[in-house]
Design brief:
Distance between the termini of chain B: 31 Å
Structural class of chain A: mainly alpha
Number of strands of chain B: 0
Strand order of the largest sheet of chain A: 1-2
Radius of gyration of chain A: 29 Å
Oligomer: heterodimer
Largest sheet of chain B: none
Distance between the termini of chain A: 37 Å
Shape of chain B: globular
Strand content of chain B: under 5%
Chain lengths: ~600, ~325
């Protein structure tokens, strides 16, 4: 079977997947512990004192059986520290019920996942570590006792019908243990599964399903991998439209991990090829991290110089910086809307008309601000309503600064802005979207949220309630004031970098995305979440460092005359970009 | 403005042409004539349900429970159950305001005392219980039965208490109403009614239908505030009325989205406001028409209907 997308699928998981899915993929590919370091460490840090891993991978939650089984399998495959693995095994052994099965403590969860499936998953997890563990005997006995007369397993104790998913999970677990005592039960089960599979294959499975994939896994492990029906199912699954990565119809990342595991098992795709791509990707990310660390100050200075050109300096009074950042971020919305728009010169012109930033009373007068915006030649094509909204926003923010701007800490600033937005700006708010944000802000206020991440969210929500301010402008403001001017070092951990085409293009150019540049260009925002995820993985304490990509994009990638000839040699990303695009260009140029 | 034009283009083309052709005059006349009869019928129902009494606080909570039961009117009718009788069963257990604060007791009243209300799903029952709990809490704080006082108490409690306690998922869905409530300051009768309406919609089981019916009963049927509020009341849109509107050829398609901010509800509001600018709730006569003849069973009983002479029967 020839499959061309295997590498894209792996990139897709590494780009869009959750960290645990990435770790699972690395474990499947048997990538070295060192390279899987970021994810492995994250997993190890999550381990609770009882040896288990928290439910839904949320730090501090009680330990979950399924999570621990999944973690155990990954840890064993990656040959993690023996002590950590042993603690997880001990946790599972402790939680085993007298009948040999495992059940989640949460009833809601038990309703969704059946004991057969949970038990099978745990057996797989423990068997990956040690197949001779005594608890496995009892667990196998449980599975054998619950095998029905038709050779399959029940879907639920409430329903009296066999479940293919539960049956295949049980069979995979039994095959994993490979105990001679269970040979008969195993053969009986596999025969039953095979006949059901053939029946469904011809009648129901016109569209390949996830269920078919699980059964295929059991059958492949049982030696039916070469059977025509199994191969056809795998082929149709792979050729299905759902493998349009990044598309809304695309398969989910967890399903993609399962698919890769099974396709490797079937020998349908070459694990070595995928491994090579994933290792390259991991190397690239490490190199990118190193470059970004090295250039961090350059990035900050790049922005500080731009701000200095418009008269904002790092030593200025706080209120002045805040107002300047707010106006500068607000003007960003005209970037694509107005031709010949240069935010710096427009900012200089507007503030030149209204007056110096430290004379707040000028900025609190709507007539003055409105006049400055309406007199602009460049903004002539922009709707009057939009300009009026921007003017109102500036006035409202200035009024807030006049009242509360002297406050030092971020906590105080965010809390007061939240109260100001709710009770002074709130009555002027119209429209459903702004009301929705105001509602969310109200909850934050009534709950009295005071933790920094919550207050950072509240700050963004408050700003988004201002007229003409959307999510991007709110992010830009907090990025300028919090990261560039470093007004509140305590929130560095939560500040995000604004994502637009300038960030996405270099990200695609260096081959970190599973999508092509053309696909990325169609909807740059779509990749925003993947870039945010990457920044949190590379720089958990300062994710805004990824704004490095914005500078590269703005200075080189989006300017064809700079990404060419001698100009490209100055590019900060030339080391990483060479492999992907530079060679292609050199080749084209002969 | 653009939204307004879209509403008229999408739902009200037939209405516009009928209005311009003066074909709606007979309909208006019948509705105005029959309004008093409709009001007395609703009053009778409230009396039968045992809601009308001297304690205004108890009345406020009882009416909330009644409007919640009324929300299931068509479902109960389809099961051959009389909603008023069902409410009376509920009231046999819940007799005073403190009972409304007891979640277990309400659960018992719904599950064991009522015949069919107990069959609704668990999540809905939980929402009904918390809505009644909150209403009782609010009502206990009200000192005088004035509209402003009632509205202020509802607003502040919903803004600062309900918003805090509501489950995350439900809150995200309702956040817009909380936002609208925050931006509606109580200054006069109109804003007080709007704020009260939004407060009710923001409650866990609050919906347009519940909120508008609640205000309709309090302000127009029982007139508990002794002030003229008719022009500021909004009629409730519910499936029966939507069916009658379609039969009468007032809407181009059946109105199915009953949300307070939906275009379909706004279209309905435009019809009511255009026909009866001084009292849009007059259109609630159509509910009676739906109950008696138009939406009652498998067949419409047009021959007996009040509106038979002026109904084009466009169903």
């Amino acid at each position: 079977m020839s499959i061309e997308f295997e590498t894209t699928a792996a990139k897709y998981i590494m780009e869009w997947g959750e960290w645990i899915e990435k770790l699972q993929l690395l474990a499947i590919l048997k990538i070295s512990r060192k390279k899987a370091g970021i994810y492995l460490e994250k997993l190890i840090k999550l381990q609770n004192s009882d040896g288990g891993f928290p439910v839904n991978w949320r730090r501090g939650s009680r330990s979950g059986i399924i999570e621990t089984a999944v973690a155990l399998e990954a840890l064993s495959n990656l040959k993690a520290d023996r002590k950590i693995v042993l603690n997880a095994v001990k946790f599972l052994e402790k939680k085993q019920l007298p009948n040999g099965s495992w059940m989640e403590e949460n009833e809601e969860r038990n309703r969704r996942v059946e004991p057969t499936i949970i038990t099978a998953k745990v057996i797989r997890g423990i068997a990956a570590y040690d197949k001779k563990r005594s608890c496995l005997e009892k667990a196998i006995r449980y599975l054998m006792d619950n095998q029905r007369t038709d050779g399959l397993w029940l879907s639920s104790s409430m329903k009296n019908e066999s479940s293919l998913e539960a049956s295949s999970e049980a069979l995979i677990a039994l095959l994993e243990v490979n105990n001679p005592k269970i040979e008969h039960a195993l053969k009986f089960g596999i025969d039953a599964l095979w006949s059901t599979f053939m029946e469904k294959f011809t009648e129901e499975w016109r569209e390949p399903s996830k269920e078919a994939l699980h059964i295929a896994e059991a059958l492949i492990k049982a030696g039916y991998g070469d059977a025509e029906a199994v191969r056809k199912i795998l082929q149709s699954y792979v050729k299905a439209e759902r493998w349009r990565f990044g598309d809304r119809r695309s398969i989910s990342t967890d399903e993609a991990v399962d698919a890769i595991r099974i396709l490797i098992l079937a020998g349908a795709i070459d694990a070595e090829v995928i491994k090579k791509v994933v290792e390259e990707l991991l190397d690239k990310r490490e190199k990118l991290k190193a470059i970004i660390e090295k250039k961090e100050e350059d990035v900050r200075n790049y922005f500080l110089i731009r701000f200095e050109e418009i008269g904002l300096r790092i030593n200025d009074e706080k209120r002045r910086i805040l107002l300047g950042c707010f106006i500068y971020a607000l003007l960003d919305q005209f970037f694509w809307a107005a031709e010949d728009f240069d935010p710096q010169s427009e900012y200089r012109r507007i503030t030149g008309i209204i007056g110096p930033l430290n004379q707040l009373e000028n900025y609190a007068e709507i007539e003055k601000v409105r006049g400055a915006l309406f007199r602009s030649r460049v903004l002539r094509g922009i709707a009057r309503r939009r300009k009026m909204e921007v003017a109102r926003s500036i006035v409202l923010f200035t009024k807030f600064l006049k009242k509360y701007g002297e406050n030092g800490s971020f906590r105080e600033f965010a809390e007061k802005l939240r109260a100001y937005t709710l009770f002074e700006l709130g009555p002027q708010i119209t429209g459903w979207n702004a009301s929705h944000r105001l509602g969310l802000l109200l909850r934050s206020f009534s709950k009295g949220e005071k933790s920094l991440p919550k207050l950072y969210e509240a700050l963004k929500l408050s700003l988004e309630c201002f007229p003409a301010v959307g999510s991007k402008i709110a992010t830009l403001f907090s990025y300028y004031s919090g990261w560039i001017f470093n007004l509140w070092p305590e929130i560095k951990k939560y500040i995000e970098c604004p994502i637009d085409w300038n960030t996405v293009k270099p990200y695609g150019n260096i081959g970190l995305s599973c999508l092509t540049i053309e696909e990325l260009k169609k909807d740059p925002k779509k990749t925003g979440n993947a870039i945010k995820k990457l920044s949190r993985e590379l720089f958990p304490d300062d994710p805004a460092k990824i704004s490095f990509l914005w500078v590269v994009g703005h200075e080189w990638c989006t300017k064809p005359y700079k990404c060419y000839g001698n100009g490209i040699r100055k590019c900060w990303l030339i080391e990483l970009c060479r492999g992907e695009r530079y060679e292609k260009r050199e080749k084209n140029m002969g | 403005m653009r939204r307004e034009r879209r509403i008229w283009d999408k739902y009200l083309k037939k209405f516009t042409s009928r209005l311009e052709g003066r074909l709606l005059e007979p309909l208006k006349k019948i509705i105005i004539e029959k309004e008093a009869e409709t009001i007395s019928q609703i009053f009778g129902k409230l009396e039968t349900a045992g809601i009308i009494g001297e304690d205004f606080r108890k009345m406020l909570v009882d009416i909330m429970a009644y409007t919640i039961f009324d929300r299931f009117y068509w479902k109960l009718r389809s099961l051959d159950e009389d909603p008023v009788a069902e409410f009376k069963r509920f009231k046999s257990t819940i007799t005073n305001i403190d009972d409304y604060l007891d979640g277990d007791l309400i659960y018992y009243a719904l599950k064991d005392e009522c015949k069919d209300m107990g069959k609704i799903n668990r999540v809905t029952i939980e929402r009904i219980i918390s809505t009644l709990n909150y209403t009782a809490e609010i009502v206990k704080r009200i000192r005088r039965p004035t509209l402003i006082e009632v509205a202020k108490n509802f607003r502040s409690y919903v803004m600062f208490n309900v918003s805090k306690d509501m489950p995350e998922k439900l809150y995200v869905r309702k956040a817009g109403y909380f936002g609208l409530l925050t931006s509606t300051l109580i200054r006069d009768v109109e804003s007080a009614l709007e704020s009260l309406r939004l407060s009710i919609i923001a409650l866990p089981f609050g919906e347009q239908q519940v909120a508008n019916n609640y205000l309709y009963i309090l302000g127009k049927i029982l007139k508990i505030w002794n002030i003229k509020v008719e022009s500021n009341l909004k009629p409730a849109l519910e499936p029966g009325i939507a069916e009658v509107l379609l039969s009468l050829g007032l809407t181009d398609k059946k109105l199915e989205n009953m949300d307070y901010t939906s275009a379909q509800y706004l279209a309905y509001l435009r019809i009511a406001e255009t026909l009866f600018p001084e009292d849009p709730t007059k259109i609630m006569v159509l509910r009676r028409v739906a109950e008696e003849w138009c939406y009652v069973g498998e067949w419409k009983r047009c021959g007996e209907c009040w509106l038979n002479s002026s109904c084009p029967k466009e169903y």
